[in-house]
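Contributing new records

If you add data, match the layout below exactly. Sequence lines come first and carry their own label; structure lines follow with theirs. Keep one chain per record. Anything else will be rejected by the validation script.
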Amino acid sequence: MPKLREVLIKMAPTQKEFQNKRKERYVYTTAELHNKIKNIQQNIQIGIYQANSEKMCAADFHQVAHFLYKIGFITGRKRNETEIIERVYYDEDKYLLLANVGDRGYSWEIHPAYRGALANGTNDNWELTFDVDDEA
């Protein structure tokens, strides 16, 4: 994905997300993730190399989302019956976010390791978006 840096930077919370989501501004349902990527694609032409050839093709939502999941930029998360957050990573379930698989009830969060970089130069206080007491 040649424009990876631009895509990752555009994944930062928008002002609207900042105001409406506060603590979970780095968390997206699959539909919200779809809209966010679709909005990014209106400003950046995102290409991806096809697995079976060396041709660059325009990437669709599932390809972009799955790539972000594969590189660890986003992780799957859902709350279990006791409200503890359970996370899933690409090496644990490689097929999530593929067009023919879907999300299996997971929402998506930008990995905490990237939040500080996305908040660069803003008064984000991204550290408040991560609570270790919520972890499984």
